[in-house]
Structures are given as structure tokens and as C-alpha cells.
Design goal:
The structure holds 2 protein chains of 2 kinds. By secondary structure, chain A is α/β, with parallel strands linked by helices. Chain A contains 20 helices and 23 strands. Chain B is 38% helix and 23% strand. The chains are: A alpha/beta, B alpha/beta. Chains A and B meet through β8, α11, α14 and β21 of A and β2, α2 and α3 of B. Bound molecules: iron/sulfur cluster (2 copies).
Chain lengths: 601, 201
């Protein structure tokens, strides 16, 4: 799909960089969204490289999408970026925009974590395409990521619909060449076609008894969204981004995204229908391929969505039955396709017994202090989606409940209501999760008179995705000191009775504060402050060592979860518990855990 | 015979500069006019997680971003547990370049899993593939910490093995790293080339 013009040169870009470039070439005015692996860098690159585009990290995905919808109604092309898990938060906003009048193109760039590379659950953004009847585009490499980003805006405007650009963890992290015209200049586009844009509910309610009415007050509100999508489906048979490659007659494959390349490499003789738009489907092209081959297969990453949609057309196709989805397969690889469709290919088997790398926290992370104090004092607690969720893993066992981002405050409240506040089940939440949606849980907790304790970990950024700014950060795309939100002040204004702020590294003070808060007969908040060690590269203090004569190898220190503490075979083959000098930052937490005073400065 | 392209897996753990390594190597191949696809898969985990980069260059457009098991020409690994994870991906005549550095795995540290009883270095050399082990103890340098500069050492080792121009490679290093690190990087590069010459002799 390379469109090379005379002045264009080939540049190596990863998928995220290519999408950002596409936004620039499409003349986008506004970019918003919320960080989420693997697609966070779409925003970072847009902000760094294309100063003409207004960029913001919004407080959460729903707000981000609403900002983009507003900008689009003003007539300007805009996009919101998030991961699929984030779109669950923004789904209501997407439902509102689906089927409504679109002025400036509106694109939702969504990162699907195929293969659970970033550790998400099995989500597939295309379900939203089906549910809301909106088109989904899916690139196979960086060139297509750029081209489809531009195409998405054109489709959005032409067919009056939001468009989802689905990018995967593989697309985002793969670098390949893209034709770039260095002489290209930024040209903002503005298109004001509609004077109103209402959700489908408003629109259809007004039309209900008005069939045949030509009254302009009614007609201006009406958007015939089913007709737009029907026209799009029909036109998609002629879209360049959908490509029928007729070769051998035995095997026909319908595919999209990077699985297209896996297929082509493993089955060079197969006939392939390569879809750039996976929703709606180009029915004629599918029928043409079906008529050409003996057997039709569908090879798609994620869930069996294209497969079901193809079967709905009455076309028989093999997919899930040959390539069982979960848990057997986390994402397609060329190997999986070869195993099933090239039966005599040699098999390669991974060596047995290679130990797994369980996630651990960065050395010196403030979350480790909290996990350790909760565990030591047997305080039951809910974790949130933060770096601190590592405390849920089996070597730490600091938390017994953990669900989605921003949830822990309401989870703890629910637990405490059900148990008549006899246990004080504590909530731990990061500052990112607190601003994203946790603050709603806190408001709810106060006005429903809950006596719960919330620990808010203030590390001055959204650490898990690489340190993006949040409302309480002291930096950011649009940062001004006077606009920085103060967690303690906001909590106080919401009505929390008991608020303390503690430095994470003051172990005794922190432990006392948490115990005081838990025992107080009122709602309480402990704000634990320490900038993220990785983002802000804190200066190292003196590092700790383990005195091998005193160490009994009880491994209490290892179970605090610090990356710097290792068990290693020494030269004589004997196992020793040691501190990795390169990684230790000297926070001292491990020394509080050792009962034998073996950990010393 | 003209080199029509190769499939390379670069493996290690977070913080070892693997992305810089693949970036430097890609610049070399781009200068030679090859088509490239590089897929960087950073595993689950905050720090100390596994990092795996699939690096393919070819004189024809590269299709799959992932290299099929059995199609790997070179395995360049910065950590020996990670080396083991990719041995089965090598072609029969594929070549292994591995550091003997080891970052103990968290599951073993916490006794959720048993460590492998055998020596990992021995398991690697027993694979039947041509193998080069870069021994950190034997190659200590007074000028720099070799375990922190493994990416540049590996780059020089690989360049020597392939018979590439060290001048051009050093030029790429100079263009790509911040000025204050250039001197240290060049020292590491020269060391890597020396280790390679000794082993290849
Ligand atoms: S807690 Fe102390 S005694 Fe136990 S393994 Fe660690 S250093 Fe050794
Ligand atoms: S002092 Fe202990 S807990 Fe803190 S970083 Fe060093 S090894 Fe880890």
C-alpha cells in the first residue's frame, strides 16, 4: 500500500509514530485521550512532533472522547486515543456519538492488547463496532497505520459516523518503513455541515410520529444513520484498503491486521482477502473469494468477530474450530497457522523448565512500603489498577481484592457496608486512578456516611504507563502551577474528616498513620507521597548489603517484592540472598523486614 | 554470495539497552538499502521483565513481524535464562551469541518455582548450534562496567563476526548516542571487537 510521491522518503516508524503522522497529514486540530499500553505513545509523538495539533491527556477516557466529540462538532478533525480497557470507560460517550451528525471527522484510536503483551484481559475493540454499528479499520504495518488514520477521517465525514482505528500491541511496537513527504505542511480542515448533532435517542424520539413530515425543525435533527452505514458497506467492495489477492484455488483466507502477513508468509499460494476495514464487511468481495476457492478460512487476532459476521451473511467459513481462541491461543503467530494448515512442517519445542519472570516492582517504589505495612499488620485491603497491584501476586499477598481502574474506594465501601464496618477493609488507590474515576467512589463514600479508610499513593504521575501527567502533577502539556489540583484539598472539600500526608520512606511514621486511620471511627485518608522512582530518577542514597553470616535465608526480604533482592548461586554453588548493587536505591524497606538484622548499610 | 537478508532475535531483560541495540543495527542495514521490520515485545512486568526483539532485514519486503520458530539465523542474547527461551527458534545452522549474565527470576527468588538444576551456560553450549559465550568475568574492563555496556559490546562482536566495517558502525554509534556517552561507548565497542577477534581466531 505504498503511495510514494516524488519528494517522499522512506522513514522507519513504529505503529504509534505512524498514527501520529497520519493525524498530522489529515489536518487534525484536537487530540485527547487517556494513557494506556500499547497506544500511549500515539499522543506522546503527536504532542512532541506536531505542535499545530492541540493535545491533552484528559482525566479519563470518557472525558477524553467527549472533548474530541465537541471539537468534531465545532467542525475540526479530532481524535481520542485509549486502550480497549479504557474504551469500556468511554463506551457511553461512544454510544452517544454513534449514528449522530458528524462535522469534522471523529476518530477513536484504540489499542488492543492482543497476546496480552501488556497484561490486559482478552478484550477486542471490534465488539464496539458491532454494538454501535460503527466502522473499524485495522492496519497491518506502519505504512497502513498512517494511511488508514487519514482514511478514517475521510470515512467519518463522508458517512457521518465515528470511526475506530484498531491498533494492536504488535502494530504499536513494530517498526517498518513509511513513505513520508518531508515537504508536507500542516493544513487544518474545517467542515460545518450540520447545525445540530443529537444522540440517536433524541433523534428517533422526534421522528417517531413525524413520518413524512418535511418540517425543517424536524428534518435538521434527523440523521439517517442506518442508510449511511448501508452505503458504506456497499462502497467498501470498491475500497482500495480492502484487497482481493486471487491465487491458488484450494485455500482462501479472509484476514486483517498483522495476521495478514503471517498468512502470506506461511501460505504464499493461498488466495487472500485482506481487509483494511474489518467492519462493515465487503460482502461481494467475500463471495468472490468463496467462489474461487475450495475452502474458506478466517484468520483474525482477538475474538471470532469477523467469523461470526461472515457466517451471518450465510457464507460458511472455518475459523475458531481450527484455531481455538482462548486459552489455547493468545494471539496469532506464523507458527500457529503453519501448524494447522501446513501439516508436515517440522515442529519446534520450547525447552522445559525455564523459570517465569513474575512481575516485580521497581527498587524503591513507594507501593512496596504500603504493601509491606498492610501485610505486616494483617490489614485487609483492596488494590486498584496501579503499579501497586503487584502486591496482589502470590509472593506478596498484600491485597485480597482488585478489579478495574479507580474501583478500590467503592469496593472497600461496599465491603464495609456489608460487614457493618466491623473490619475496616481499606482501599489503596494510585493518584492516576483517583482522578480518573476513584474520586467518584470517594464522593459516594462520604455522602453515604461510610467510615472507610483510603490510602492514596501520590507519585506525581501516571507511573504504570510511563509517567504521563495527571491533574496533580507539576508538569504536563497544558500545565500551569495555578491549575494544579491538590489531592488533600480536594478530599477535604469533598468532606473527608481525617486527612494525613506522609513521606513513603518514613516507615514508622507511615505505619503509625495507616494504623491511626484504620482505627479512627470516621472516614479517613492517608496520602503517601513519593515521586515515582523510575519517572523522576530519584538520587540514590547509600545502598544496602546482606551480611551472609547473619542471613538465615528466610526470604522475608524477597517477599517485599523489590527487584533488587535476588537469590543467587555463589561461586561455590551455594545459594545466597543478595542485594543487586546496580538496582538498589537505598530506600531501607528490606532492612525493616529482616528479623535477623542481616540487612545493613 | 550476496546477503539477501537474515532473521535475528535479540533477547534480554528490561534496562539492558536492547532497543538501542536494535536501533543501531537497523541504521546499519538501512544504509545498505535493506528492507526492515523490527518488532519489540516487552513482556509483562514493570522492571526486570523479559524483552524480545524480532529483527528482520531482507532485500525484499519483509512480511511477518514475528520470526517463525526454526527460521532464526542469529540469536543475540544479553541474559542467559532468556537465551534458553529462544534456542528452539534457531535454524540448524543458526548461531548463538550470549552473555553469561543472569538476572535471577522472581518466581525462583520467591520459591514459587524451582531453578533449573543444570548450569545455564552448559545448556546453551549443548544446543548443537554454533555458540559464542561472552563471559563477563573473563572480560572485565577497568574502563567501564561491561555488564552495563553489553549492547555496544554485542554490536561490535556481531559486526566482527559478520565482517562488517567497524568504522561505519562506530559512525552510527556516534550519531546516535548523546555526546557525553560517545567516549565510553567507543571503548566498549573496541572491547567487544577484541573479544570477538580472540574467540573467532
Ligand atoms: S530477611 Fe534477612 S535473614 Fe531473611 S533472607 Fe532476607 S536478609 Fe536473610
Ligand atoms: S534498600 Fe532494600 S528495598 Fe530498598 S531498593 Fe535497596 S534492596 Fe530494595
Amino acid at each position: 500500500m505504498k503511495k510514494e510521491s516524488k519528494s517522499s522518503t522512506m522513514k522507519m516508524l513504529n505503529g504509534n509514530e505512524a498514527v501520529a503522522r497520519g493525524a498530522f497529514e489529515a489536518g487534525v486540530k484536537v487530540a485527547s485521550g487517556f494513557p494506556g499500553t500499547p497506544s500511549t505513545e500515539v499522543m506522546d509523538y503527536t504532542q512532541q512532533r506536531y505542535p499545530d495539533i492541540y493535545c491533552e491527556w484528559s482525566t479519563n477516557e470518557k472525558v477524553g472522547l467527549e472533548v474530541a466529540i465537541g471539537a468534531s462538532f465545532a467542525g475540526y478533525r479530532s481524535f481520542a486515543v485509549m486502550k480497549t480497557v479504557g474504551l469500556h470507560v468511554a463506551a457511553d460517550a461512544l454510544g452517544g456519538a454513534a449514528g449522530s451528525q458528524i462535522n469534522g471527522g471523529l476518530v477513536l484510536v484504540v489499542g488492543d492488547d492482543v497476546g496480552r503483551i501488556a497484561g490486559d484481559d482478552y478484550n477486542d475493540v471490534r465488539h464496539y463496532g458491532n454494538m454501535f454499528n460503527i466502522p473499524v479499520l485495522e492496519p497491518s504495518d506502519s505504512q497502513e497505520a498512517k494511511d488508514l488514520m487519514i482514511k478514517a477521517f475521510e470515512i467519518s465525514e463522508e458517512y457521518s459516523t465515528p470511526v475506530i482505528l484498531k491498533i494492536t500491541s504488535v502494530i504499536c511496537k513494530t517498526t517498518s518503513s513509511v513513505a513520508i513527504d518531508e515537504n508536507d505542511t500542516y493544513k487544518v480542515k474545517c467542515r460545518q455541515k450540520y447545525s445540530v448533532s443529537f444522540s440517536k435517542v433524541i433523534m428517533t424520539t422526534m421522528m417517531m410520529n413525524a413520518k413524512g413530515s418535511e418540517h425543517p425543525k424536524l428534518t435538521k435533527c434527523f440523521n439517517d444513520f442506518p442508510a449511511h452505514i448501508k452505503r458504506l458497506a456497499a462502497d467498501s467492495n470498491d475500497f482500495e484498503i480492502n484487497r482481493l489477492e486471487l491465487r491458488g484455488k484450494k485455500i482462501g483466507i479472509i484476514t486483517a491486521g498483522t495476521p495478514y502477513f503471517y498468512t502470506k508468509e506461511v501460505l504464499p499460494d493461498a488466495s487472500i482477502l485482506k481487509l483494511g476495514m474489518v467492519m462493515p464487511l465487503p460482502e461481494n468481495m467475500i463471495r468472490e473469494l468463496a467462489a474461487h476457492v475450495d475452502q474458506l478460512y478466517v484468520i483474525e487476532d482477538g475474538h471470532d468477530i469477523m467469523e461470526k459476521n461472515i457466517k451471518d451473511l450465510g457464507i460458511s467459513v472455518i475459523g475458531k474450530e481450527l484455531f481455538p481462541k482462548f486459552p489455547e491461543m493468545m494471539r496469532f503467530t506464523p507458527d500457529i497457522i503453519e501448524e494447522k494448515l501446513v501439516p508436515d512442517a517440522p515442529k519446534r519445542i520450547l525447552m522445559e523448565g525455564i523459570p517465569f519472570r513474575l512481575p516485580v516492582s521497581c527498587a524503591g517504589c513507594s507501593h512496596l512500603f504500603i504493601s509491606q505495612i498492610l501485610k505486616k499488620n494483617k490489614i485487609k485491603a483492596a488494590a486498584d489498577v496501579t503499579c501497586g497491584l503487584i502486591g496482589c501476586f502470590p509472593h506478596m499477598e498484600s491485597y485480597s481484592l482488585q478489579k478495574c481502574m479507580g474501583s478500590s474506594i467503592a469496593l472497600a465501601h461496599g465491603y464495609n457496608v456489608a460487614t457493618d464496618h466491623k473490619e475496616n477493609f481499606v482501599a489503596m488507590i494510585g493518584d492516576g486512578g483517583f482522578w480518573a474515576t476513584g474520586i467518584n467512589g470517594l464522593m459516594n463514600l462520604i455522602f453515604n456516611d461510610s467510615q472507610s479508610t483510603v490510602i492514596i499513593v501520590d507519585n506525581s504521575c501516571l507511573a504504570m504507563t510511563g509517567g504521563q501527567h495527571i491533574a496533580s502533577s507539576e508538569f504536563g502539556f497544558n500545565y500551569k502551577p495555578e491549575n494544579k489540583l491538590d489531592i488533600a484539598k480536594v478530599c477535604e472539600a469533598i468532606g473527608v474528616k481525617d486527612i494525613v500526608t506522609v513521606d513513603a520512606y518514613e516507615f514508622e511514621n507511615l505505619e503509625k498513620s495507616i494504623l491511626n486511620a484504620v482505627n479512627a471511627k470516621t472516614n479517613s485518608i492517608v496520602i503517601v507521597k513519593k515521586p515515582c522512582v523510575t519517572k523522576f530518577k530519584l538520587p540514590k542514597s547509600d545502598i544496602y548489603h546482606i551480611d551472609q553470616d547473619l542471613c538465615t535465608q528466610c526470604r522475608k526480604c524477597i517477599n517485599i517484592g523489590c527487584l533488587a533482592i535476588e537469590s543467587k548461586k555463589g561461586k561455590d554453588g551455594k545459594v545466597e540472598i543478595v542485594i543487586n548493587e546496580d538496582l538498589c536505591v537505598g530506600c531501607g524497606l528490606c532492612s525493616t523486614a529482616c528479623k535477623f538484622d542481616a540487612i545493613i548499610l | 554470495m550476496q546477503d539477501t537478508g537474515k532473521n535475528i532475535i535479540i533477547a534480554g531483560v528490561g534496562g539492558q539497552g536492547i532497543l538501542l541495540f536494535s536501533n543501531l543495527l537497523s541504521k546499519y542495514y538501512m544504509k545498505l538499502g535493506y528492507e526492515l521490520k523490527i518488532s519489540d515485545v516487552i513482556g509483562l512486568g514493570q522492571r526486570g521483565g523479559g524483552v524480545e526483539s524480532h529483527f528482520r532485514y531482507s532485500n525484499e519486503p519483509v512480511l511477518s513481524p514475528f520470526i517463525k520458530a526454526g527460521d532464526v539465523d542469529y540469536l543475540l542474547s544479553f541474559e542467559q535464562t532468556e537465551t534458553l527461551r529462544y534456542l528452539h527458534c534457531l535454524k540448524d545452522d543458526g548461531v548463538i551469541f550470549s552473555s553469561n549474565f543472569e538476572l535471577s527470576t522472581s518466581s525462583v527468588n520467591t520459591r514459587l518455582e524451582k531453578d533449573m538444576p543444570e548450569s545455564k551456560t552448559e545448556l546453551i553450549t549443548k544446543s548443537g548450534n554454533k555458540t559464542f559465550i561472552i563471559d563477563l568475568d573473563e572480560n572485565k574492563s577497568l574502563d567501564f562496567d561491561i555488564s552495563k555496556m553489553m549492547n555496544i559490546v554485542m554490536l561490535a562482536f556481531y559486526a566482527e563476526f559478520r565482517g562488517y566495517s567497524h568504522e561505519e558502525m562506530i559512525e552510527i554509534v556516534k550519531e546516535s548516542v548523546p555526546a557525553k556517552f560517545v567516549e565510553g561507548n567507543i571503548k566498549a565497542y573496541e572491547k567487544g571487537a577484541m573479544i570477538a577477534r580472540a574467540q573467532l581466531a
